[in-house]
Design a protein that fits this description.
Radius of gyration: 17 Å
Largest sheet: 6 strands, antiparallel
Number of helices: 6
Strand order of the largest sheet: 4-3-6-1-2-5
Distance between the termini: 36 Å
Number of strands: 11
Strand content: 25-35%
Structural class: alpha/beta
Amino acid sequence: MEQEKVLTTLSLISSHDEVGNVRTFTFEKKALEWIAGQSQAYVLPQAGESEKENQHWFTISSAPVEGTINISTRVSSSPFKQALNALKPGDEIMTHSLGGTFTWEETDGPSVIFIAAGIGITPFRSILHQRSATGKPLNATLLYFNRTNEIPFENELQKFNQEHVEFQIKSLVGESVTAEKIFELAPEATERVVYLSGPAPMVSSIGSVLKERGITIKQDRFPGYDATNF
């Protein structure tokens, strides 16, 4: 028997453009508690009658310490994205199934490897902000692939890089995400835990290659994105 979905209603506080067609929507937190890097399903009945139209999964881009639930996404012509973009402050969205394991695991070992493609940066933005705000080390190397030089959260990421000597960021514009490129830029990835986030096809294909190499990986797949629109 399918488990009943427990819906929570959140009100929009504000929204703003990040860069290009990326926009952040800030909702009240209410009693929701989450770990940086987790995701949940959002429902807007006005987007359509079917679940495919009126429901979408997002990884929360805000950190728990910030006290709001933020969705950061590329605004496309899809019914859901258009309904989301039409929300005004005070309008409501429904959400359920908060969870996921794309979260930082404390280890005594060396730094981890973050690999983000475009909008796949959202869980890393949440994780890095939470760790920085709570005084924990950002012992990670971030490989950030983007189609264009309009890079979401670029200023925040560069600030983390400046304030934390243990954190490295390597931004790649116009480069395809390949296992070869990952090993070229971060050869230590073969011995580290790798976090891979971005378009679902890319995450699945690259993830398979990394697993074949015996690498421990965590994956966050973004539906609706591919090599042309991430």
